[in-house]
UniProtKB/TrEMBL annotation:
InterPro entries: AAA+_ATPase (IPR003593), ABC_SmlMolc_Importer (IPR050093), ABC_transporter-like_ATP-bd (IPR003439), ABC_transporter-like_CS (IPR017871), Mo/tungstate-bd_C_term_dom (IPR008995), P-loop_NTPase (IPR027417), PotA-like (IPR005893), Transp-assoc_OB_typ2 (IPR013611). SMART domains: AAA (SM00382). Keywords: ATP-binding, Cell inner membrane, Cell membrane, Membrane, Nucleotide-binding, Translocase, Transport. GO terms for cellular component: ATP-binding cassette (ABC) transporter complex. The complex is composed of two ATP-binding proteins (PotA), two transmembrane proteins (PotB and PotC) and a solute-binding protein (PotD). Pfam families: ABC_tran, TOBE_2. This is Spermidine/putrescine import ATP-binding protein PotA. SUPFAM superfamilies: MOP-like, P-loop containing nucleoside triphosphate hydrolases. Part of the ABC transporter complex PotABCD involved in spermidine/putrescine import. Responsible for energy coupling to the transport system. It comes from the Bacteria. Residues 13-243 form the ABC transporter domain. Belongs to the ABC transporter superfamily. Spermidine/putrescine importer (TC 3.A.1.11.1) family. The gene is potG. Its EC number is 7.6.2.11.
Length: 368
């Protein structure tokens, strides 16, 4: 199910020209954004870009200075947090230490107008969903960090909110548990159909769990797209550089048949790119290409784009190595190659003269 494939799909959340100021500081700057029902949506960006502020406005803990926020077509700005069909799971989990897992999950339901006999069924369902059945009678200090995280999740889903906000939900877990828990989160999101909005610093996490990602910078949206679009087709140099590793090279464009050339150094051949971008000739631009799209070889290959250089650095990463290749004075290109030979740490070594090559569809031309 991919809601963005269906243009008729109504958005669950709509931010319309939302601005949030704290004194004269603008934390959110005239932001417009739709989030669809049943999406797993990630807000990603550097510290201070406004992710948490945006999420707190959804929860009702901050009020926009300007603009409106709609949930199912209803303006929720005047609606207090506890009357919104929205729940928020905090990083600290905030579990009650003296209550059992069962009682922690039931807590919010008991304070609602849900009939008593339904509460038990609902808690049991949440315990199953989060695979906590065996731990129902334990107190928070008698379970692991990952299990506590699941209790917090079960509790925040118990009232079946339309929207669940997750603020760095896996921040307290170690890397391995974090990776496992990402898949659990995805399963739970899919089986409940609840719309999840996650705030994270961790780009890998955003790319793993989310169906769409918003990259934010300075209170604005730099790009909103699926993880693969963000990675393969970033629209600005900021996004290209923020997500993953990238080679960026500044130059000027000229139009060719079916594409363009990027002229970056008078003594070097231009880079050929097939592109639909409506750039005019002689525009200042950047060519962006991921290191794994750049092939490295000892012999000159027959390819559209070929550059010769010298290896000046190697990062050994186990399955792959990243080679830093100087292609012109002070211009370093990174290329990745798989390490296939057993017990051989690398295929090439320092000072090797090598050829870098790539196809004309492997990179993109960016003007911002
Ligand atoms: P982080 O990843 O570090 O949590 P963030 O992207 O979530 O960052 P926000 O917490 O949304 O960032 O903050 C955005 C900006 O607004 C920051 O510069 C922050 O200092 C400022 N800000 C947030 N809340 C307030 C407040 N109550 N008063 C004044 N400034 C605030």
């Amino acid at each position: 199910f991919a809601p963005w494939d269906d243009p008729a799909q109504k958005p669950l959340i709509q931010f319309k020209n939302v601005t949030k100021r704290f004194g004269d500081f603008t934390a959110i700057d005239n932001l417009t954004l739709d989030i669809y029902a049943q999406e797993f949506f990630a807000l990603l960006g550097p510290s201070g870009c406004g992710k948490t502020t945006l999420m707190r406005m959804l929860g009702g803990f901050e009020t926009p200075t300007e603009g409106r926020i709609f949930l199912d077509g209803v303006d929720i700005v005047p609606v207090p947090p506890n009357e919104r069909p929205v729940n928020m799971m905090f990083q600290s989990y905030a579990l009650f230490p003296h209550l059992t897992v069962w009682e922690n999950i039931a807590f919010g339901l008991k304070r609602s107008d849900m009939p008593r006999d339904q509460i038990g069924d609902r808690v049991e369902k949440m315990l199953k969903l989060t695979q906590l059945d065996k731990f129902a009678k334990r107190k928070p200090h008698q379970i692991s960090g990952g299990q506590r995280q699941r209790v917090a999740l079960a509790r925040s889903l118990a009232k079946a909110p339309k929207l669940l906000l997750l603020d760095e939900p896996l921040g307290a877990l170690d890397k391995k548990l974090r990776n496992e828990t990402q898949f659990e989160l995805m399963d739970i999101q899919e089986s409940t159909g609840t719309t999840f909005v996650i705030v994270t610093h961790d780009q890998e996490e955003a790319m793993t769990v989310a169906s769409r990602v918003a990259v934010m910078v300075d209170g604005q949206l730099a790009q909103v797209a699926t993880p693969d679009q963000i990675y393969e087709a970033p629209t600005t140099t900021y996004v290209a550089d923020f997500i993953g590793d990238v080679n960026l090279i500044a130059g000027k464009s000229s139009l060719t048949d079916g594409g363009m050339d990027v002229h970056w150094d008078d003594n070097q051949p231009a880079i050929h790119v097939t592109t639909n971008s409506p750039l005019s000739a002689r525009t200042a631009c950047h060519f962006a290409i991921r290191p794994e799209k750049v092939s490295i070889s000892a012999e000159k290959p027959d390819a559209v784009n070929v550059m010769k250089g010298k290896i000046i650095d190697i990062a050994y990463l186990g399955n792959i190595s990243t080679y830093h290749v100087e292609i012109a004075a002070g211009v370093i290109f990174k290329a990745q190659a798989t390490n296939t030979r057993r017990l051989s740490r690398r295929t090439y070594t320092w000072e090797d003269e090598v050829y870098l090559s790539w196809t004309d569809t492997a990179g993109v031309v960016l003007t911002e």
